[in-house]
Design a protein that fits this description.
Layout (H helix, E strand, L loop, with lengths): L3 E6 L5 H12 L3 E2 L2 H9 L4 H5 L13 H7 L3 H23 L3 E3 L3 H4 L6 E7 L3 H12 L3 H23 L11 E4 L5 H12 L3
Parallel strand pairs: 1-3, 1-4, 2-3, 4-5
Helix pairs in contact: 1-9, 2-5, 4-5, 7-8
């Protein structure tokens, strides 16, 4: 039985690209932050409400939700929790229909007890390589990339901590960790495909 893949990743590690590569090679669906946007629209939850709390309105609000909820009470906070639990339900339902690749959004924890998923934390122990990749993928300067890397990883860590009460980088959360400073994206993809049971 082919299992789903759930990924958490450091910014600049290449985790998103690896996830897409695995999905293409296995010919299975790929889901990332756009799934949250889709669910929000379906539930009539205002994206403007969330975007107000994003620095550049580029989509990183997906990782600011927990912080936002901490400072807003009443109806707005209720909407934030509604969105998270609807996304959680969507991930579980999608995984039941067949194997898929899920990136971020605590999918590693959401699918942990399903018996039908492999979880991985993708990181790089080479700060220079992460910086270079961030500059290339985002088309930004070195100084901008450094700030963005720090902000993204902090937001992802805070989001994970808020909803799971766990440390984002704790290796015990995952079935495996892959270091892209020593493994190429292709090598990572092949390792993950084998772990998923893809022939």
């Amino acid at each position: 039985m082919t299992k789903s893949l759930a990924i958490e990743r450091e910014f600049g590690s290449g985790g998103r690209e690896i996830g897409k590569m695995v999905a293409e090679m296995a010919n299975i669906p790929y889901y990332d932050g756009n799934l949250m946007v889709k669910v929000a629209k379906e539930k009539g939850i205002s994206l403007d409400l969330l975007n107000e709390y994003d620095e550049k309105n580029t989509g990183s609000f997906l990782y600011n939700i927990a912080l936002f909820a901490s400072y807003n009470q009443g109806a707005n906070q209720s909407k934030i929790y509604e969105l998270y639990y609807e996304v959680q339900k969507a991930i579980k339902d999608l995984a039941k229909t067949g194997p898929a690749v899920f990136v971020g959004r605590c999918s590693t924890e959401i699918l942990k007890d399903s018996g039908r998923s492999v979880s991985v934390y993708i990181y790089s122990s080479d700060p220079a390589a992460k910086l270079k990749r961030a500059m290339q993928t985002e088309g930004i300067t070195e100084a901008e990339a450094k700030k963005l890397m720090e902000r993204k990883d902090r937001q992802r860590s805070d989001y994970f901590k808020y909803w799971t009460e766990k440390n984002w980088k704790d290796r015990s959360n995952y079935d495996m960790e892959l270091n892209t400073s020593t493994l190429s994206s292709e090598e990572c993809a092949r390792i993950l495909l084998r772990a998923m049971g893809v022939d």
